[in-house]
Amino acid sequence: MAASLVICPGIHSPELTTGFLQGLNLVPTRDDIFVFPTQDYPAYSGLDILRFVENSVPPTTPPIFISFSAGVVGAIAASQLSSLKSHPIKAFIALDGWGVPLVGSVPIHRLSHDFFTHWSSALLGRGETSFYADPAVEHLKLWHSPQEVWGWREVRLGLRNRVSAAIFLKELLQQYEFPCF
Fold first, then answer.
1. 78: closest CA among 45, 34, 32, 37?
2. Highest taxon of the source (predicted)?
């Protein structure tokens, strides 16, 4: 079954989210990409994100959530509320959701801007495959320029290979049946 993509930015300028989508070669005007409007609602509001998903995403294309920073807080709440309402979610991908417990009934993946964030976040839910930047980068660079951030994809503790954050994300999207061009 095909999927939709729900992008949940953090608290930052919209240009950074535009850069994120460009770094993945995704066009935000596609009819299967939905960017939560943080200029109108708090990035951390799970109820607002849930309403946005219910009003925007067709029920025939379960969403893949990609969230960043404060957006991780709202997006994980929205995905859990959506699951309670029996609305399927394909996967959840968190970029720098430091300090946010990530648990749920869907596959969860983490990306971190450095090893410390990767390691300490895993204490609150490791999830499936994950990624951390090495060398470390600034927090906002992970979101704005994933194609420039290199690091390690960790399949399980001790098993890893070197990729860019953009490659890691594109492979996840393909795994969950979201077409990347």
1. 45
2. Bacteria
Query: 82 falls in which pLDDT band (50, 70, 90)?
Result: confident
Tokens for 96, please give them: 């720098």
Residue 45 placed within a domain = yes
Structure tokens at 127: 């999830």
Residue whose tokens read 């995704």: 26
The amino acid at residue 174 is Q
Q: Is the pLDDT higher at 85 or at 101?
A: 101
Range of the domain at 17: 4-175
Structure tokens at 9: 């930015």
- Nearest partner of 128 among 175, 85, 166, judged by Cα: 175
> What stretches of the chain adopt beta strand conformation (E)?
4-8, 33-35, 63-68, 91-95, 108-112, 130-133, 150-156, 159-164
Alpha-carbon distance of 130 to 118, in angstroms, equals: 8
In a domain, 72, yes or no: yes
Question: Which tokens go with 156?
Answer: 């399980």
CATH code of the domain in which 147 resides: 3.40.50.1820
Q: What residues are paired with 43 via a beta bridge?
A: none
The model's pLDDT over 94-150, given as tens digits with 9 standing for 90+, comes to 999 988 988 888 999 999 999 999 999 888 877 889 999 999 999 999 999 999 999
181 found inside a domain? no
